[in-house]
Amino acid sequence: MNNRFRGFFFLALLIGQIAISRYYPFLRFNVDLLFLIIFCIAIKSGYVPTMVSASLIGLISDYFSGGVLGVFSVSRTLAAYFLNMMARFIDLRNNFFVFLLIWISLFLSNLVASGFYVIVFKYKIAASLLIYQPLATAGSQRRFCSSLPP
């Protein structure tokens, strides 16, 4: 995949995620497209580009979610660190391992973000954020990651 197509693909995922969060907030079973971008960067890049891009993508999602600025930035950066470290030890050609890696890392990221929202806004922890969204995102990885070069 050449760089121009990769940039267009990431931009399309960003616009798609913004459209889902802005115009269809009632969807309980949505895919976190921005996390898939973080996943691709974490398994393909080094440590510093992964951390910088994850924190910037987290800030973008914080801005468009309308919540506390920095919650998703911190949680996505922690998940990107986990992904970057675990990608060295896991066979990424096996779809089951990729599914587990995405599901566990997004679950942990959403758990950290939910913890911040419980502390700040006294929200209750939602199953849609901790169970449904990580499963939907991890389930969509087969089509998404099949287009990536090894």
3D structure, described in words:
The structure is a single chain. This protein is mostly helical. The protein contains seven helices and no strands. It has helices at about 5-25, 35-45, 45-65, 70-85, 95-120, 125-140, 140-145. α4 runs antiparallel to α5. The longest helix has 27 residues, at about 95-120.
Which secondary structure elements does this structure contain, and how are they paired or packed?
Layout: H1 3-23, H2 33-44, H3 47-65, H4 71-86, H5 95-121, H6 127-139, H7 141-146
Helix pairs in contact: 2-3, 2-4, 3-4, 4-5, 5-6
What descriptors fit this protein?
150 residues; mainly alpha
Concise overview:
This protein is mainly α and 150 residues long. The protein is built from 7 helices and no strands.
Our measurement of the CA-to-CA distance between the termini, rounded to an integer number of angstroms, reads 11 Å
Q: Mean pLDDT, nearest integer?
A: 80
Largest beta-sheet details = none
**Uncertain spans, ≥5 residues at pLDDT below 50?**
none
Give me the secondary-structure category.
mainly alpha
Number of helices: 7
Write down the overall geometry: globular
Radius of gyration: 15 Å
* Beta-strand percent range: under 5%
The beta-strand count equals 0
Q: From N to C, what is the helix and strand string?
A: HHHHHHH
Helix content: over 70%
